[in-house]
Request: fold
Amino acid sequence: MTHETKEKHIFEIFLIVTVLGLTALLYHTAGYKMIVLNLFYLPVVLAAFFLGRYRAGVFCVLCIIGASIVTVTDLGNFAAMRSPVVIGLAVTVWGAVLGLTALLVGTLSDERSTRLEELNDAYVGVIEVLSRYLQSANQSLRARSNRVAETSQRVAQDLRLPMNQLDDIRVAALLHDIENLEITAKVIQKAVGSFEDNSTGEHTFHGTELAHSLGGVLTGAFPLLLKQTVGASELANGRVAESPLGARIIRAVRAFDKLVYGEDPGESCTLTVREALAFMREDTIVGYDAAVLNAIERVEVQSSQVREINATLGVN
Reply:
């Protein structure tokens, strides 16, 4: 169960307790119960906004059932009205409006969530295309960037991080190696699909400038990029563990990839997966996160098993 799922479950329990509390308040209120009935809008609207249309409908039905039971068992104290028909009509109208509110707010919430997912997918896709295009001239850099990004994302999944953090980690890992490149404005135009040449010159800048210029867009990934460089003061004061978990994941995966695959293509002084992890566990200076290293080991074991199965089946 992910942290995000746990939070949703806790929120659902809170709303259920709220509905039960309002039902008890409705039962113990003598007269003017319609005022208490209006308080049921609060949990229903909250459920619709944060949990979506389906769960809002469930909470709406729960509210209507609780209010109906209390009303039937205590008709005499239902406001100033004495006629069961009038009381039944009032509760019916209240329940219909409550259900309509849940439907409308829940639908808007679902549409908002869908739009945010589409925007997030587009944002990650554009960064991937830009990163791969800019690194196309350096195949070893591109291969390393892809390995680090994929492994970092899988490690984050193993640690059960929320989906939005998985995307931020992947984007930060892809953008990290761009700082080693020199980029022209013309290349950027081609990468994003703009082939019109309206520039008057070939403005060249480093990838670091590009990453900093995108800081306003990369609200989640940019802090992870800033935390990749560990300074001497942080090592001396033992503050490496204070960096975000996403930054610790990328830093550990990059160090692991360097030990296993080498920094330069064709480099022979590389270690096995177990040797690399053992070396990193013994590195008390940097102090890699033990949970991250354990997750890397699990991910690599799974990858090796998949490769063995594919080799047995003759799948590339």
Q: What stands out?
A: The domain at 135-313 is CATH 1.10.3210 (Hypothetical protein af1432). The longest helix spans residues 84-134.
